[in-house]
Amino acid sequence: MADSLHIVCPHCDAVNRVAGARLVDQPVCGKCAQALFTAQPTDVSSARFDKHVARNDIPVLVDFWAAWCGPCRMMAPAYAQAAGRLEPRVRLLKVDTEASQDLAARYAIRSIPTIALFEKGREIARQAGAMDANRLMAWVQQYARVA
């Protein structure tokens, strides 16, 4: 792992520099003093999305979903479980496509739920449809460089 990594705070969006070896030591934000990893997906709006995807040095997994979508609601607990298992190696975000229609249009989200994996600000993989936690973990490990 790199000597130091940039990690965006899920609470205040400040960019923190953390030693790669210290990610597992429950680092806190230098600005707001809250945990950088919460073992839960972070809900982001259009205004916060770009910073989290572009500035995190770890892979970012995004769940594009909507409250009215049955499969999205079904997958939500599995996605939360995956957050607990993947952090701090991967940041998990949730984007409500109803509230952030600009992001849904920009990424051509045609069906939901859709998960997309980003590294260094660019999309590297995408999958439509609900998944359980184990399948989600396997899918992430297939495309991201995480152990």
- Taking all residues together, what is the mean pLDDT? 95
Looking at how many chains there are and whether they match, the oligomeric state comes to single chain
Provide the spatial order of strands within the biggest beta sheet.
3-5-4-6-7
**Silhouette:** globular
Derived from helix and strand composition plus strand pairing, the structural class reads alpha/beta
Proportion in helices: 25-40%
Helices and strands, in order, run as EEEHEHEHEEH
Give your account of this protein's structure:
Helices cover 30% and strands 25% of the residues. The chain is an alpha/beta fold. Strands 3-5-4-6-7 form a 5-stranded mixed beta sheet, sandwiched between helices. It has a two-stranded antiparallel sheet with strand order 1-2. Strand 4, helix 2 and strand 5 form a beta-alpha-beta unit. The longest helix is centred in the middle third of the chain and has 17 residues.
